[in-house]
Prior knowledge:
Helix 1 (22-35) crosses helix 2 (61-79). 27% of the residues lie in helices and 28% in strands. The chain has 123 residues and is α+β, with helices and mostly antiparallel strands. The longest helix has 19 residues, at 61-79.
Amino acid sequence: MSGNIAFPYQFDTRGRTALTDDDTHLRDMIEQVLMTCAGERVNQPSFGCGVPQMVFGPASDTVAATAQFLIQGSLQGWLAQNILVQSLSVTDQDSSLVIDIVYINRLTQEQRTASFTAPVPSP
């Protein structure tokens, strides 16, 4: 176990700050980029890609394509030193945006997959 703080912040069984391994920490960083909207961080106002803002629009191929474009740019901008995105797909399924990311951990050169789902209201 390394010294990466768990996201979201939580306590372990001893009542101390919970820690995670490097792979989990990297996935947590991807989730933070996805789920943070621009302007939420005071000292980094351009951080994030705003997937939560997309939940207020109807699920469609256009929303999925826009999300894919924003996610790709944000991951390259904020995590390029940590990951190399191999593939990224955003699809609308059952009133949700499903985000599938295949990436290479630049430190270990291992390929990983992460999936996220953001609910979107139907029109």
